[in-house]
Amino acid sequence: MKKARVAILRTSPDRVLSDYHELMNLAGYQETIAKDAETALKINISWHFFYPAASTTPWQLDGVIRAMKCDGYNPDKIHGCHNRTVVIDSHLGERENKHINVIQAHGLENVHLYEGEEWVDIREAVGDLTREFLCLNDVYPKGFSIPRRFIGENIIHLPTVKTHVFTTTTGAMKNAFGGLLNEHRHWTHPVIHETLVDLLMIQKKIHRGVFAVMDGTFAGDGPGPRCMIPHVKNVILASSDQVAIDAVAAKLMGFDPLSEIKFIRLAHEKGLGCGDLRDIEIVGDIDAAEEKWNFQGPFKEMTFASRNQHRIYWGPLKKPIEWSLKTWLAPWAYVASVIYHDLFWYPLYAKNKLNRIMQSPWGRLFANWETLSPDPEGRGFPSLGSGKPGRVKIGLGHFIQGLRLVGMAVSESPELQARKRRLEQEFPADEHR
Residue 240: helix, strand or coil by DSSP? Predict the structure, then answer.
């Protein structure tokens, strides 16, 4: 059997674009991503506000697009791909994280899966594969839907290297979560590891090719995917094996992938990929793959929000509270999340972490992204702009935006939308009035 292959390179702003091109070819992406099929670039937005390591970086997205165009992929068949959640505004996120700048600069289509896209029942999409699910049949006894456009498409996941309060680490496998479950994704949190394995099975069935390109120029430790301690790590990874790339990233962060990361172990045992580091072929910068960052992980210094999420899904609050998240009462949790993260934690704690990291070369590249151009050969950004990057200021506009997001958490909640649909069916508008 052919060994799983993970490519890894050290990089810097002056060569990051060419490094992404080399990385993807080292990982053999052209063997996986067919040129005659549509390709979705699955952008990761873990926070609509910019926070290092939380979301796909603009140079990651730019590097992947440039590599594909250079290798003869038709840009008309490549599109940016976004999902939404009730606590993350994908349109705000693509602006604040500068993804839309890249998509528009390359003239690509930009798809928001929840806006005008058709969703199809999972049983229609994958047939008897549903019998092999570890948990999704129990979580959704009436079934669930996935985007019809995914069937037959390639997908390239664009995660970052970071920890997660539900799954210890998060990466390529978790990046499918938002795009493949249309509503009530929080119902899967008590069985989140099993859910990721089921979603990988679905991906292997519906997609023409599945590939991942992971950015570790910033990496996040602590109670991710939002309230993290960001670090500059200068590495990038790629693989067609979603299990293997997550295993290598977990090892870099200081975890044993098979014993400490349950979703990696379960996927490995089901033969969906390789989580055993001994059986993974590392190509590129071998020394970089041997690094061990000794991250403390997401559970040592948890936030108020993450501690209570654990109590609700796995602890003493499970019986008295979790039931409410499956009823019309669920929006209380969405509102609480937005208030805590956007209106409390970000203004109070993120500012100092952001101002520190913005002094790094990657911070300067992000701050000046709109005004910078790569060198004539397209290798990277030899100049990061003049002067020091401005300090992050959080003023009245942030709080106004936060209040809007609180309203969004209620108005776009699945529970309210379902009630609205029921009312429209029961009391259809009089077309003749």
Answer: coil
What are the φ and ψ backbone dihedral angles of 22, each rounded to 5 degrees?
Answer: -65, -45
pLDDT tens-digit map of 350-363 = 888 888 888 999 99
Q: Which residues pair with 5 in a beta bridge?
A: 281
Give 103-132 pLDDT, tens digit per residue.
999 999 999 999 989 999 999 999 999 999
Q: Give domain status of residue 148, yes or no.
A: yes
DSSP 298-352: SSTT--HHHHHHHHHHHSTTHHHHGGGGGSTTTHHHHHHHHIIIIIIIIIIIIHH
Structure tokens at 397: 């506009």
Q: Which amino acid is at 189?
A: H
State the pLDDT at residue 433. Answer: 45
Strand duo 209-221 + 119-121: pairing:
unpaired
Above 80 in pLDDT, residue 183?
A: no
**Residues 327, 308: Cα–Cα separation, whole Å:** 19
Q: How far from each other are the two terminal CA atoms of the chain, in whole angstroms? A: 68
Q: Are 277 and 247 in contact (CB under 8 A)?
A: yes
Residue 241 belongs to a domain = yes
Confidence tier at 424 by pLDDT (50, 70, 90) = low
pLDDT per position as a tens digit, 12-70: 999 999 999 999 999 999 999 999 999 999 999 999 999 999 999 999 999 999 999 99
Domain assignment of residue 346, yes or no? yes
Alpha-carbon distance 228 to 235, whole Å? 18
Distance CA 328, CA 158 (A): 34
Burial class of 334 by CB neighbour count within 10 A (0 to 12, 13 to 18, 19+): buried
Surface-to-core class of residue 395, CB atoms within 10 Å of its CB (0-12 exposed, 13-18 middle, 19+ buried): exposed
Rounded Cα–Cα distance for residues 379 and 16 (Å): 7
Number of structural domains the chain divides into: 1
Whole-number Cα distances in Å, 113 to 365, 384, 426 = 29, 34, 27
Exposure b/e, 215-235, CB count within 10 A at least 16 = b = bbbbbbbbbbbbbbbbbbbbb
Q: What angle do CA 377, 65, 185 make, to 5 degrees?
A: 150
The per-type count for the chain, helices as H runs and strands as E runs, is: 20, 12
Range of the domain at 40: 4-426
Residue 188 lies in a domain: yes
Are the C-beta atoms of residues 64 and 156 closer than 8 Å to each other? yes
